[in-house]
Amino acid sequence: EDDANEKGGGGGDDDDDDDDEDVSNAPTTKRSLETITSGERLLEALEIAHQEWATLRAHEEAVRKAAAAGKPAPEAPAPSVLLLGLHPVAYVLRALRMVKAQHLEQALLVASFSQAEVILEFCAEVLASGLGVEIVSRAVVLLLRAFTVQITSSTKLRPALAKIQAHLRPELGRLRDTIGVNQAALEHIQRRGQEKGARRAPEDEGAAPGKKQRTA
């Protein structure tokens, strides 16, 4: 009976250990699921935008050919309702912004290299529009780090990378200037606050004896 009780007690301890492991692993599992979901949503948005972008480019090419041939321009295709009324480039930027900062790297690592190529092409277009500099520059750096060999050997990506370089450098310079101006303004406000505090101190010290005399 004692042996049976000991075995039974041992089984209970094992169950408790398993429960503790389940509880401790729960946050990690939740973060992993959130990251996977973020990556899947980003790639889904990318596919939708890429298809619509291809349609728009095909229409632009058809318009150019019609104009060259002296023919009327073809009718514009109906926009995809899945884009929520946004241009494909704006839709990809929206999808990037919806990914939490701490999940962005893992969400991008879910992408294959062919998908990374499309993301970089969209990033080039976003930067050309002057929008989303911070999120796009971070995405570009993460993709360059993840696919260094493939990207550097890809001739297809050269135009996109050249556009990214051309627009990213001045935009980051403007951001640095803005941060510098804001920092200078904050320091100026802080100095003024300290000066006011220093001026008040002697006044308060001078007023203190008077207050004591009135209460005496």
Instruction: Sketch the major β-sheet.
Output: none
The count of DSSP E runs of length 2 or more, i.e. the number of strands, is: 0
Category from helices, strands and their pairing: mainly alpha
Beta fraction: under 5%
Amount of helix: over 70%
Order of helices and strands: HHHHHHH
Overall tally of domains: 1
Write down the overall geometry. extended
Radius of gyration: 30 Å
Terminal Cα span: 86 Å
Query: How many H/I helices?
Result: 7
Chain-averaged pLDDT? 79
Low-pLDDT ranges: none
How would you describe this structure to a colleague?
By secondary structure, the chain is mainly α. The chain has one domain (2-196). Helix content is 82%, strand content 0%. It has 7 helices and no strands. It has helices spanning 2-68, 88-98, 104-109, 113-128, 133-146, 148-152, 158-215. Helix 1 packs antiparallel against helix 2 (88-98) and helix 2 packs across helix 4 (113-128). The longest helix is centred in the first third of the chain and has 67 residues, at 2-68. It starts with a helix and ends with a helix. The model has no long low-confidence stretch (mean pLDDT 79).
